[in-house]
Amino acid sequence: MGYFKAIKAAKNKHWSSFLLTATPQSLWTSKRFGYGRAQPPFPSLRGAETPQQMNNVLLEHFPPKEPFSPPPRLRPNRSAPPVTMEEIASALSKCSPTSAPGPDWIPYSTWKQVNQINPAIPLHILAPLVLLGYHAASLKSSNGVVLDKPGKPSYESPSSFRIIVLIRTISKIFARIIAARLLAAAWLRALLHPNQCGSLPGLSTYHACLTHTNNVRTLQRPCLKVSSLFLHIKAGFDVVDNNTLARIRKEGGIPPYLVSWVSSFLAERSRTVVFQRAPGTTAPVNVGAPQGSPISPLLFLLDVRRLHFGIPRGLMISYVDAFTLTVASLSYRGKIPRLQDILDSLERKASRLGISFSVARTELIHWRTPSQRHSPKCASPIQVKGELFHPGNSMGWLGYWFTPALDPAAHFSHRLALAQGAFALIGRLSPPGAGLPPYLCHKLATSLIAPILLYGADLFTPSMGTTTRLDTFWLNVQRWTTNCFSASPTGILLVESCLPHVSLLINHRQRLAARRVVCSPPSVNPATARLDPLFPLLSAHAAPDSSRAITRGLSSVYLPVHWKTPRPVPPIRHHLPLDAVAHRTIPFTLGLSRLPMINSHLACPTPILLSRSLMDNTYSALKKTLREKPLEEWSSLFPTSGYYLHPPALHPRPFMGFGKFVAGRLHQMRAGKGYLGARPTWRSPAADTSCPRCGLEPETCQPLSYPAPRDCTAGRASSTASLMSVPKPHSGHPFRC
């Protein structure tokens, strides 16, 4: 028994020492150890008892058997621009050194070192392949790692697993260079639909959800009944057709060498399925695009662009393989048949392209306004592939949770539950008085917990009650970071932890999101293209399917507030979601006649041409202004008590590099809640508060952070020595733009 206790004590001692000496580089290793690793479910497929049978079943299920056309012959294309060292360096800069390598087991870090020592080596490898429009056969083999899909009730079917393709890193570097060229050609020739988002520079889930939400609220202004159907393409990358680029080339869109390279890249591939006790059999793959390649999402977008079409009094928008159809009508009776007709048209177009939609992931929702809360709810279903789908009370799309009334409480309740689960796991890394130093706890709070908690805060604004719930949880994170008492004043705790109030974080995220919207090219970003025509953009491009025109001529009750006008108090009228975004930009765009444009090289056309350096400098000035805004609001909206003399900061303080116990005592004494022997308590309210060193002034915690009184030389010497020995930890900025 003593032997096992000694082993346990040694493990605990080693774990404590590891946490105490953790660095920002090893922090995520600590987090992975704290989370633990669940044993992945072993494929137990029906009718497959041996690993070879399981391998055959998985190969039959992934992917379908529809062969590609043979690759073209090798012909030098003299018009192909040569590969440059700058393109290779740019592709390598976007590659993570921790990414899993392919069958050759060469990581990105090796290629980065090779390119740094001798850039001519990767250049000589890739340049001839671009000239020939050819992807070498030795680069087409890959490993297919079988991973389980979380949350499945049973793992007896191949559909409960997915295959992640691990490609050779040099092949992914090459594909990233070709993807950049193909994307530039696609934007220049308008080969992508304006309502396609995802896997494109400058477009995120926020822009897709903002465009969708703005369209819903706009259609509701003239008292129309609005419904949306959410669809997902089944087996997305497996439906990519290598003849798509050939058809586009005939239309005069893509350079010939890119078409030849993509055809060669997609043809004659092979894959080795990897799972526990896998036999290691290599099988050919002649359909779809590899999911792990950087160019596959772009090829998928070019393939499904033909599914998009205009909807009168509605909108179709997509994010990679997720589609949403929104229609509006004067009554519920006429709305459902119209939505059914649009869905049937979409399914007919999809079937001609060999595309199908997943029935299990289909969702229907009937939107409502606050004024309709007492009216009868619409329960009319819609039919998808012979199955009836009834409207739901809430649904998740791209990480955002929607309700019929667009109530943000449902979304933030979901985010709060996820943040609490993450905090319960990483809290074990730093228990009270031990574990990680406070500055590493601060890094975990800003880089892990805050993104989980506040995801979606750029689109939704929580109510006062929801903000209180979020702030209560955030205070627990602040106490965990500082190791302070529960009795510490909340205003002082904010400053000591260097973690601002939740409302400040939400305001900052919304301003950053607004900056990204108003500084994007309207021809690329569907949200920017639906801004008010009088908004000072560099481009006059407007979305042809915008529903803003239907709000003209409405009565004052239904007319939305202009983007330059603040929301009235009480809020009888509201902005449209995009007008609210434009209104947030007013404080930091004063004095600018036009806003700068990021990714301006993708805009086509740009009527007002400005120098690239001028737009970059203006955009950098906007970022600096936004970065300084939280500190200004913090000091004005959340002032501390008069006896607390320390200003708020967004980066960890120097003494937070001490151990958890020592730094926690310093935090508590700075907050006025320290272990001072002369501090009056409820047991001894008449205790002597004079300093034991000088006996002249009351004892406070100030000698620990500031020079002591002139008569107290011992206190001054000790405080100076303490300050000189404080290590400066690595600090991060939670408000990166």
Descriptive tags:
single chain, 737 residues, 5-stranded mixed sheet, 21 helices
Please explain how this structure is put together.
There is one protein chain. The chain is globular and about 95 Å long. Strands 3-7-8-4-9 form a 5-stranded mixed sheet. A 4-stranded mixed sheet has the order 2-1-5-6. It contains 21 helices and 13 strands. Helices cover 39% and strands 9% of the residues. Helix 15 packs across helix 16 (490-497).
Task: Tell me briefly what this model is.
With 737 residues, this protein is of the alpha+beta class. It has helices at 2-20, 27-35, 51-61, 85-93, 108-117, 120-132, 169-188, 205-220, 244-250, 256-266, 296-304, 332-352, 408-426, 438-453, 464-482, 490-497, 502-518, 577-584, 612-637, 660-670, 713-724, and strands at 141-148, 161-167, 196-197, 225-232, 269-274, 282-285, 314-319, 322-329, 363-366, 382-384, 387-389, 395-397, 400-402.
